[in-house]
Design brief:
By secondary structure, this protein is mainly beta. The protein contains one helix and four strands, in the order ββαββ. The longest helix is centred in the middle third of the chain and has 9 residues.
């Protein structure tokens, strides 16, 4: 069954403050196919203070990715990021 109207909304947060939200629409996806799509997008400049805080507080930088098919939520991924270089 083909997938039509595939959409992804991705939100990035630091300490629950929204840094940036992205909204991508992919349209038609052929059944039984492997598809790749690369989006390179600009992120707003972050102050030195915010970047330092992100390093000092690993896993407080987070994202949510929501995937919709025909406006119905089919998957939600959550991710946490560490920029401290540690475990």
């Amino acid at each position: 069954m083909p997938i039509e109207n595939l959409r992804m909304i991705e939100r990035h947060y630091f300490r629950e403050k929204l840094l940036k939200s992205f909204d991508f629409e992919f349209g038609f996806c052929m059944p039984s196919s492997k598809n790749t799509c690369e989006h390179i997008y600009e992120f707003p400049p972050l102050s030195e203070d915010v970047m330092r805080e992100m390093i000092l507080h690993p896993y407080k930088t987070q994202s949510d990715s929501f995937y919709f098919v025909d406006n119905k939520l089919v998957m939600h991924n959550k991710a946490e990021y560490s920029y401290s270089g540690g475990p």
